[in-house]
Amino acid sequence: MDKINFFSEDINFSLTQEEKTSLWLERIAESENTLIEEISYIFCTDDYLLKINQEYLDHDYYTDIITFDNRDSPEDPIESDIFVSIDRVTENASDQNVSFEHELKRVLAHGLLHLIGYNDKTEEEQLLMREKEEAYLSL
Fold first, then answer.
1. How many angstroms separate the first and last alpha carbons of the chain?
2. CB–CB of 74/115 below 8 Å?
3. 138: burial class by Cβ within 10 Å (0-12, 13-18, 19+)?
C-alpha cells in the first residue's frame, strides 16, 4: 500500500492525478521534516461528513474537512484518515472564485498541515496556515 491513498464514500468521485497528488503531498511533508506512515483521504458528501462531525466531534455543522490523527504520539510518523466533502470544496471554490482543483489541493494540504502541527484557531494561526497553503500550492 502507498503512503497516501484516496477513497470515496457515499459519492462517485475519483482524483484525476492520484500519483502526482501523492508525490506533491509527500513533498510538503518532506519540506516540513515530517514522515508519513499512511494517510487515507476519503472523499464524501456534505451529509456523510456532517454525520461524522456530529458523531465524533459533537459539531452540528457542515465542514470541508475533518482530520483524524491516528498516531500514538505527535513525534511518530503521520497516520491519519482525512475526510473531505466534495460538496463543500465545490461550493468554496465557487465562493472564492477559484477552480475546483485549486480548492481541492488547498484542502488536501490543509489537512496535512494540521497533522504537521499547524493550527487555525486564532487569527495569527489562520494567517500562517494560509501562507503555508499558498506556498505549497505553488510547488
1. 25
2. no
3. exposed
Domain boundaries, the chain: 4-137
The secondary structure of 66-127 as a DSSP string is EEEE--SSTTSPEEEEEEEEHHHHHHHHHHHT--HHHHHHHHHHHHHHHHHT---SSHHHHH
139: confidence class by pLDDT, cuts 50, 70, 90: confident
Strand, helix or coil for residue 33: coil
Count Cα neighbours of 6 within 13 Å in the Cβ-side half-sphere. Answer: 19
- What is the tens place of the pLDDT at every residue in 24-37? 999 999 999 999 99
CA distance 133 to 127: 10
Supply the Cα-derived Rg of the chain in whole angstroms. 14
Q: Is 110 annotated as a binding residue?
A: yes
Domain 4-137 top-level CATH class: alpha beta
Tell whether 120 is in a known binding site. Answer: yes
Chain mean position to CA 88: 12
Q: Is 64 annotated as a binding residue?
A: no
Tell me the three cell numbers of residue 25: 503531498
